[in-house]
Specification:
α4 packs across α5. It is built from 9 helices and 10 strands. It is an alpha/beta fold and about 240 residues long. It folds into 2 domains: about 120 residues, Tetrapyrrole methylase, N-terminal domain (Cobalt-precorrin-4 Transmethylase, domain 1); about 110 residues, Tetrapyrrole methylase, C-terminal domain (Methyltransferase, Cobalt-precorrin-4 Transmethylase, Domain 2), CATH 3.30.950. The strands form 2 sheets. It has a 5-stranded parallel beta sheet, with helices on both faces. A 5-stranded mixed beta sheet has the order 6-7-10-8-9.
């Protein structure tokens, strides 16, 4: 008799550690988390901390964790992670912050799960990408998250010109991020390089008590100056 396959649960976690877990997640998620003893995570340490703060019923030391991140270099490693699920054991996938599978290595295990007929269940939780669009006032009917921009000045300016054309030609909002310690440099490049009539949203520390979200034209940002974004997780949105 063939054993039923397990289920992959995509488990969001808070973006900020400064809020209680259940201030930003629905309590139903706890029922799912309590049912699992196997977790595929971006970082074991942060996942253990999240589950502990969430107050799950099982002891953390009784749980099994495997890491899926930028150091996972082969398809065979991902296949090994899915093997327990194919044998009937359900698993939770957890990112370091926010929702797994979006700008996150968790997408690799999900793709493999679908190829093997495994059910994937996304749970409700905070996505900094969607929340920044919600609060921006920019076009939420058509938008694209393009990740990190090039680091070199010439390549970065070229990429910004490409994104500006997409904003103008397609009316599509463009979202991107930077390593927090380079936020100020990116902001400076934006206000120098982009047309003054375009609008720029700066969304920083989403869901934290120090959350800051503002949308101004590039011309208005030039007058106001750089906001307090140094070394703080930030999403930038460009639109009209």
């Amino acid at each position: 008799m063939t054993k039923d396959k397990g289920t992959i649960y995509m488990i969001p976690c808070p973006i900020s550690d400064e809020r209680d877990v259940w201030d930003v997640l629905p309590k139903h998620n706890l029922e799912v988390m309590n049912s699992l003893d196997y977790f595929i995570v971006e970082n074991v340490r942060s996942a253990r901390r999240f589950l502990s703060r969430a107050g799950i019923e099982r002891k953390i030391d009784e749980l099994e964790f495997v890491e899926l991140n930028e150091h996972t270099t082969s398809a065979e490693e991902v296949e090994r992670m899915l093997r327990p699920v194919l044998e009937g054991r359900s698993a939770g996938v957890i990112s370091e912050a926010g929702v797994p599978g979006v700008a996150d290595p968790g997408a690799d295990i999900v793709a493999l799960a679908h190829r093997n007929g495994v059910r994937v269940v996304p749970l409700v939780g905070p996505s900094s990408i969607l929340m920044s669009v919600m609060a921006s006032g920019l076009n939420g009917q058509s938008f694209a998250f393009v990740g990190y921009l090039p680091i070199k000045d010439g390549e970065r300016s070229k990429r910004l010109r490409e994104l500006e054309r997409r904003v103008r030609d397609e009316r599509q909002s463009q979202l991107f991020i930077e390593a927090p310690y380079r936020n100020v440099k990116l902001f400076d490049t934006l206000v120098r390089s982009v047309a003054p009539t375009l609008r720029l949203t700066v969304a920083t520390d989403i869901t934290s008590p120090e959350e800051y979200i503002a949308t101004l034209t590039i011309a208005e940002w030039r007058k106001r100056g750089v906001p307090n974004i140094a070394k703080r997780p930030t999403i930038f949105l460009l639109g009209i």
